[in-house]
Write a structure and sequence with these properties.
The structure is a homodimer. The first copy, chain A, has about 425 residues and is α/β, with parallel strands linked by helices. Chain A contains 13 helices and eleven strands. Chain A has an eleven-stranded mixed β-sheet with strand order 1-3-2-4-6-5-10-11-9-7-8, with helices on both faces.
Chain lengths: ~425, ~425
């Protein structure tokens, strides 16, 4: 277990602002933590050299000065190699940053390294292990982003989710993983897999931390400011989402979800249960056809050029995707569209949905990265979703609760999640 | 005037299918036409070497065997340099093709070269001239794609439209330019400018040609097949779209639009006039904020790295975009969303809208590429739109009529456009 000392981005920034931490030292602290831990955790595909190049100069006074951020190696970086988790892109050096990397640099962040990703953010695992138990997967595809934060090497990391690749590894590693509303963060310069699903997300220790990062990257009112009038939990309808998949979750996870509901009620929220509309079950089933058809188009050029360097599981996914007919794809998109209408209606009955963030704790073994079945519907719906840690199974492995809000209600989700985070710990 | 002998893709394919043309000769014909004409037209940023490399081998029996396609140099190609019209990407060589290029190759097309684009598909002109009069702009941003088809060098080309970059140059060059419904063709591997607007489009001599190409690239039922029951024009409501901008069009263009309406009526269509709903005027005004805010994000990394190599007009656009607040962007998106609802309602009253494809014929001079004000609303709405040639001003420069249909009604638009194409010529 290497997760005792997660770094809080918000706490670091506050310490820096009152002169109790200086940016150079904050970065040095992360470099040291990486040097000490990453030999075991293998969260990084590449660590930036500490040379005094302009790219790594600290912009004193900038909002994220001294904040080291790990970038999932599915995003281009002009100053670090970018391999998309694939032998086909070994030693590839893009010319410019991805848009999200540029946003982080504009706020003064130090891009400390590239975090490990599964191949093309699909299912072939990276080498990363789970900091809570090295024999268990950290989840995927944003494996390194979740593990690097969990192991206390960096205060924040950026990832992507097409199925469940932010919320699931966050749950498995016991960190906060925030998948914002679709397109809140720009995807340009990421290696796309399924463009209508690919969503940029954020990892940090706690809800306040991801909220601060989201606010700084977007310039939007997303930070949890102490100055705002508090949310009255009695006015927030929290619904336990009784989807059919719930029966397939591990008993420990179902128990954790029940406990989460109890603690939310104890904290004063208006807690109830809510069944899954049939249109949403259909939409969930439509995710695969949409993802795979788009992957057939998006990764077709890689298959044409680099078949020998791609894994069998990826080749099969691309070929399966190319075999999905446009009319089957259109049918799936119609189900998704209907689902979005149903989701809007659902969020007139409830403010926040709670579901498992994954079927259980991180599975043992590094051969797979776990199952996104509790995440992919919300990726397809474009709704904001967040993993809130706080529970564990009887071996001590983290169990995450996923909270979901209406499209565009990212601020509300973050505010409620911060309250639930506290409630879950008491 | 170098436009006497446009090549028809459909005619070439039919000749090939009955043994009257062979693929090698078809490609050689295009190479010869490029060698003879492109010194004057400058439609190509790069022409593929004719070496016998595997990438250029002709797949006999494939649907597009022998069909030479020009690719706007805003798309990646693994075997040809890709410069995005920018000094910042001079001699850049991508690893893999853009998705649309891969689709064309999978159908057996020969990627004969990269067609000139304005810088990043924005407003700084390429060197291309208008084949109808070399002192006039070919339009932009897909300048080379339109000019290469117009000058009879190739039977088809691929472009993109974020404002009016397919329909406008097609109109200026007197070719068919088809901007399909948003996301009908994949954008992965293009240099994005504003991802929620960037749309891949097709250029060819006539409507049957773009329809055949669209069908082959997508696997969708889009070809104009002689076997189908004919469209009864009396059942098609064609609306002359009386937007406010119409008053700002050149007199020659307004006369051409009136003639187009008369000829459509003569051909038996149910022709009327339709006013512009206020929500659509507002949506058109929202296009700039959406485009520029997204360009600020998307091209921010280029500005950070390559400021010295970008043009002043592009730098200003990116910086203006970065200054647009998220709330102004959100307001613009709300206007766009309301506009889409209004567009759906509009297309319950009418099947096809007719508008100018541009304010007039191609302006004299190569310093600008003309104005997209008649195109950008439909790019934002995601509706299919097509330029239908057939008229000219008193100097003989082409005047194009734009036809627009409901989102997803690409087949209907193509069928009606083919009938209007005939009607305009009689």
């Amino acid at each position: 277990m290497d997760t005792n000392r997660m770094m809080s981005l918000a706490a670091l920034v506050k310490a820096r602002n009152v002169g109790k931490a200086n940016p150079e030292l904050m970065i040095a602290l992360c470099r040291d933590a990486i040097a000490r831990n990453d030999g075991r955790i293998r969260a990084f595909a590449h660590v930036a050299p500490s040379s005094g190049s302009q790219a790594h100069a600290i912009q004193t006074g900038a909002p994220l000065a001294g904040v080291a951020i790990g970038i999932k190696d599915i995003f281009d970086t002009f100053d670090q190699p970018t391999s998309y988790g694939s032998a086909a892109y070994e030693s590839y050096q893009p010319r410019v940053d991805a848009a999200i990397v540029d946003l982080a640099r504009r706020q003064g962040a130090t891009i400390i390294g590239k975090t490990a990703t599964t191949e093309f953010a699909f299912f072939k695992p990276a080498q990363t292990v789970n900091p809570h138990n090295h024999a268990h997967t950290p989840g995927g595809s944003s494996s390194g982003s979740a593990a690097a934060v969990a192991a206390g090497m960096i205060p924040a990391a950026i990832g992507t989710q097409t199925g469940g690749s932010v919320v699931r590894p966050a749950a498995f590693c016991g960190v906060t993983g925030f998948k914002p509303s679709f397109r809140l963060l720009p995807t340009t310069g990421m290696k796309h897999f399924a463009p209508s699903l690919d969503t940029v997300g954020l990892f940090a220790a706690g809800v306040e931390d991801v909220a601060m990062l989201a606010a700084l990257l977007t310039g939007r009112d997303l930070a949890l400011s102490a100055g705002e009038p508090p949310v009255d939990p009695a006015g927030i309808r929290v619904g336990l989402y009784r989807c059919k998949e719930l029966e397939t979750a591990d008993p420990a996870m179902r128990a954790a979800l029940d406990k989460a509901a109890d603690k939310a009620a104890d904290a004063g929220f208006d807690v109830g249960e809510i069944g899954e509309p049939e249109a949403l079950a259909q939409a969930r089933d439509a995710h695969s056809a949409i993802q795979n058809h788009e992957a057939g188009l998006t990764c077709g050029p890689d298959l044409a050029r680099y078949r020998d360097l791609l894994s069998p599981i990826l080749i099969q996914a691309i070929e399966n995707g190319q075999a999905i007919s446009p009319s089957d794809y259109d049918t799936a998109r119609r189900h998704a569209k209907r689902g979005r209408g149903t989701t809007r209606a659902l969020f007139s009955e409830v403010d926040i949905l709670l579901t498992p963030a994954a079927p259980g704790a991180a599975p043992r073994g590094l051969e797979t990265t776990g199952d996104p079945r509790f995440n992919k519907l919300w990726t397809l719906m474009g709704t904001p979703a967040i993993n809130i840690p706080g529970f564990a199974d009887d071996t001590g492995m983290p169990l995450g609760i996923q909270a979901v809000a209406r499209f565009g209600q990212d601020k509300r989700l973050l505010r409620v999640a911060a309250m639930l985070e506290t409630a879950f710990r008491t």
